[in-house]
Specification:
By secondary structure, the chain is of the alpha+beta class. The chain is built from 8 helices and 14 strands. It is elongated.
Length: 309
């Protein structure tokens, strides 16, 4: 049995190695890499004439994530126009290799040299102020004359969709200054002021999540964790009043059917240890579900105020 096992193991290893086939060579230094880098530098500098000097007459550029089966690609002239567009419409352009990455040149045995690059693109669109900050991956095929004949782009198209949408005023829902969800927030705050904690917490869904300026990015707390934190604060401070500043807004968004009340408050408190009177400013954003329960609370409060001398 032992011999059978090792024979099978060797057979598998042999099969694995037999499936390999060398189809070319990969280089991290190559003249084609220099050509591609120089062309990209000219492109983002808006030097259309220099860009053109690196491109074959039958050059085509493709979106590698596109789903249009009839896409014929962008021509040399269209790509050069894009270089002009970048120069005229974008500021703060930065195009650098992704940290830890470097371009490769691949010479295939059946002919043709390809260069693949990984870069990070940053810029701002001048008209809309939309920020571009994203990784990009490009593939370039060079012909026998060392001219770039094909380019395939992989990038996040969403940011360019946002630029296109931002040229016109668009509504995204309705703002209310009176609404039942605003009433719920006010009743909840009044319950806290009067130490009616059972009523105050009843406005939250049991699985509601809480975040604040003082939590690490992406970290949230549960309702039970918030109750424990609040109990500690109430042990050390007496709440004398919770006063609304201005008026709350209820925003009912068309996008994703979001519902949020944003409100501004002043917590008037007395520190029990020394009788120090403290005013704690606060901004809350409470997200509601369709049943009128708070499912998420975001607080913008600096508890450093509570340490005032």
């Amino acid at each position: 049995m032992k011999n059978v096992f090792f024979t099978a193991l060797m057979l598998l290893a042999t099969m694995g190695y037999s499936q390999k086939k060398n189809n070319g060579k990969v280089f991290n230094e190559h003249p084609a890499i220099g050509i591609v880098n120089d062309m990209l530098e000219a492109f983002f500098a808006g030097d259309a004439d220099k860009v053109a000097s690196y491109l074959a007459e039958d050059f085509k550029a493709y979106n590698g994530t596109g789903i249009n089966k009839d896409n014929k690609g962008n021509s040399k002239e269209q790509f050069i126009d894009q270089a002009n567009y970048w120069k005229e419409n974008l500021s703060y352009v930065s195009f650098k290799p992704t940290s830890g990455a470097y371009p490769d040149a691949i010479e295939y045995k059946d002919g043709g040299t390809w260069v693949q690059t990984w870069n990070h693109l940053k810029a701002m669109h001048n008209t809309t102020g939309v920020k571009i900050d994203m990784p990009t991956h490009r593939l370039f095929k060079l012909n026998d004359d060392n001219k770039i004949e094909t380019m395939i782009n992989y990038y996040n198209e969403r940011v360019f969709w946002e630029i296109g949408q931002s040229f016109e005023d668009r509504k995204n829902g309705t703002i209310y200054n009176h609404h039942d969800n605003i009433n719920s927030v006010r009743k909840m705050m009044n319950a806290f002021e009067n130490m009616d904690l059972e009523t105050a917490y009843s406005f939250f869904k049991e699985d509601a999540r809480f975040n604040s300026l003082e939590l690490p990015d992406g970290e949230t707390m549960s309702l039970e964790e918030v109750k424990a934190r609040n109990n500690k604060i109430m042990e050390d401070f007496e709440i004398t009043s919770i006063d609304v500043v201005g008026y709350p807004d209820y925003l009912e968004y068309d996008l994703r059917d979001a519902r949020a009340v944003q409100s501004w408050w002043k917590f008037r408190m007395i520190r029990k240890a020394d009788g120090k009177k403290i005013i704690l400013p606060a901004l809350y954003i409470h997200d509601f579900d369709e049943d009128g329960k708070i499912v998420r609370s975001s607080s913008y409060i600096s508890t450093k105020v509570l340490e005032a001398k």
